[in-house]
Amino acid sequence: MKATIGQLIEWSARNYPDKLGLADLEKGQRWTFAEWNRDVNRMANLLRQLGVNKGDVVSVFLYNTSEFVTTLFAAAKIGAVFNPINYRLTSGELQFILNDARSKVLVFEERVLDVVTRTRELGVSVQHYLYANANPPVYARQLSSLLTGISDEKPDVSVLETDPYIMMYTSGTTGRPKGVIHPH
Questions:
Q1: Cα–Cα distance between 6 and 61 in angstroms, integer?
Q2: CA gap 8, 137 in Å, rounded
Q3: What is the pLDDT of residues 112-149, one digit of tens each?
Q4: d(CA 5, CA 157)
Q5: Where is 181: in which H helix or E strand?
Q6: Model-level pTM?
Q7: N or C: less crowded end of the chain, CB within 10 Å?
């Protein structure tokens, strides 16, 4: 079956709605495919409300969390380019990637708060900072509170298999890292 990344979770929600789709053991949370698909739709619709359009870059600076994978599928559903950034990077390295990728949104968490704060001081072009934990810094908004009241309906965006889906940065062993774009 050929499909876009966003269509894969929809297929799973349709065919296995009550099966376990996602588990975040650290938080003690579990989602069926149907529940998770609704959360992915909420995140996708939130990104659209923030002005994220097809081809815009949504970056995450997260450990392996439920927010990471939910943002990945949400970006895919609206044709945004998902940009996962290694949480071990320094503020200078993060600054370079955010500016080079022209990231519109950065989703991050408490464990990387100091690096993100220092990165902002260096100067970045990010428009929206979404914080995955409670008590966001003054420059960010708390993700879960923003998702409250957002529609869980599938966003009305046409995404093709040939559209860009993810931008992975190389290790930069011979210079600066380079963004490599992969299609669905």
A1: 21
A2: 34
A3: 999 999 999 999 999 999 999 999 999 999 999 999 99
A4: 13
A5: strand 179-183
A6: 0.95
A7: N
